[in-house]
Amino acid sequence: MSATMTNGERVAARVAAADQQHLMVKVAASLGSQASMTTTAAHPWLAGLGERMLTLLTTRGGARVCPHVGPGLPIGPMHAEFVGNAAVITCRGCLAFRPPLGPVDDRTCDRCSVYTRRGLVMGVLPIGPMLLSFGVCGRCAGELGVAP
After folding, report:
1. Which residues, other chains included, contact 81 with Cβ-Cβ below 8 Å and sequence gap of 6+?
2. CB of 88 within 8 A of CB of 66?
3. Residue 1 has pLDDT above 50, yes or no
4. Which band of pLDDT confidence, cut at 50, 70 and 90, is reported for residue 17?
5. What are the domain boundaries of the chain?
6. Is pTM, for the whole model, over 0.85?
7. I need a labelling partner for 96 at 20 to 30 A (CA). Which of 16, 79, 106, 114 fits?
């Protein structure tokens, strides 16, 4: 993908992001969680999350990327998350085959690291056609302005 996007690429990126937003709400519902979309990184923690993802994407070996995402490939919905210290970027097809993180990781707040039995509020931060997902406890969701 070039630094300047064509009109067709911009439209494809917008469609991919809208499609991915719908998917994330469905995923959250299937996990019994609440879902929220944030359109800006107004809170410093959200801005830092986006900055960390972009830094890892531009660092050699900082990200694991599925073979369906990359330069010269069609723009489609992409899912991004942190697994340990690595960024993981997948297309929708590969996301469906992602192994579950497990009950502790699925209920541990990404911001304060507190385990919660009630489940997390899922949030999604758009970064171009990529959606960075995160899960936060109710207290952190309130502080971040990520409402279910």
Report:
1. 87, 88, 132, 133, 134
2. no
3. no
4. low
5. 7-144
6. no
7. 114
